TrEMBL record:
Membrane topology listed for this record: Multi-pass membrane protein
Domain spans labelled Citrate transporter-like: 23-372
The organism of origin for this protein: Halomonas dongshanensis
Transmembrane regions listed in the UniProt entry: 12-45, 57-86, 98-116, 122-138, 145-164, 184-209, 313-336, 343-362, 368-389, 401-424
Main subcellular localisation: membrane
Signal peptide region: none
Top-level division of the source organism's lineage: Bacteria
Keyword NAD: no
This protein's name: SLC13 family permease
Amino acid sequence: MLDWVLQLDKSWVAIIIIIVTLIAFIIDRITIAVTALLSALAFYLLGTTGPESVYAGFASTVVMLVFGMMIVGDALFQTGLVLYIGNKIVKSRFVQNELSLIILLMLVTGSLSAFLSNTATMATFIPLVGAIAAKSGGRIRNKNLLMPIALAASIGGTMTLVGSTPQPLVNNVLESYDFAPIGLFDFALLAGPCFILLILYVAFIGYRVQNKTFDFSDEASSDVPQGEEIAISGKTWIAGLTMLFCIVSFVSGLFPIGITAIIGAAIVLATRCVDFKPCMQRIDWNTILLLVFAQGIAAGMNDSGAGRMLADGAVALIGDNFWILYAASILLTVLLTNLMSNTATAAMMAPIFIQIAATLGYDPYAFALAIAVASNVATATPIGAVAMSQVLVGGYRFKDYLVSGLPITIIMAIFLCLWGPVVLSTG
């Protein structure tokens, strides 16, 4: 069997590896990072790329950026700053009205998720929401709050390069094709309007739909933290100011983005805002390693010629019109993300459409941005985005995700198809 594979043209070997990788992503029996590692190794062992492509991602600016910001973000959670913000919301007058509280929580979780881990943000706000519901006397319902804030965390996490995994992943793919990296806030061109659309949808349509269709008993627990007072310490201030420094440096270009993140991580570690060993245990190594080895997959597709072959096949099938190709990249990404991890989808789609853009002379950044954002707006199931999976604790059924997430997913997918070519370069 191996001899037969080795006798094939390199591009066909690479395509076989990609198909097997895609199946493994869908089945999801092996950790996604391990699947990416095995795939990157297969590209080398079967002779389609060099050994350095397997581990070159460890030197990636984006990997250092994500790693550093995970540590800074962990400091914000561990020193109590995020919980302090949450408790201020619990005590605010917005708690008196369910819809206004939903909108406020969506704005806060979406904004935090743009710079911090949306998974950690949701882990903090889920018990806070439960506390609000438990002490409201039935005025605030846990089931009505959790789904909207999960949607906000998913979309809000797409507004910057560091908000969720698909953005740095597609950026790594661009760099593996020798294109310049994407800017920290470039994703906001597409994700910002999507976030506004989400808020408006929930305010005028989604909230009423929830009231009619979420007919199961509320899962709010009375044993969650009841908004206890959080003491602000010197470490809390250090963590907050470090995050502020990172944002200012990102915007001003004071230091390269990877160095900025590492400086931030060094500050919070050196000042013991977080202890090193526990912090390393809380780091999402699945994401870090996925970013590393996904770059190896992209390099294998590029070096073997498989990316060019798939691009030529896609063009032959659907034509070379930019608008059609751009819409196809979005709609395919949205469809696949509702069936498997959004990160896995981005890892598969980005190399193909970036290669198509490079072949036809279109702007590869337009496709990279579109795929990253599309992989986060796919919220019709609890499968694609981790934030959507986390709120299963609210007692939601699969049909509740469809009712709540499918309409806004369709709206945002259509919006991206129309809005992207207006604000992005088309060639």
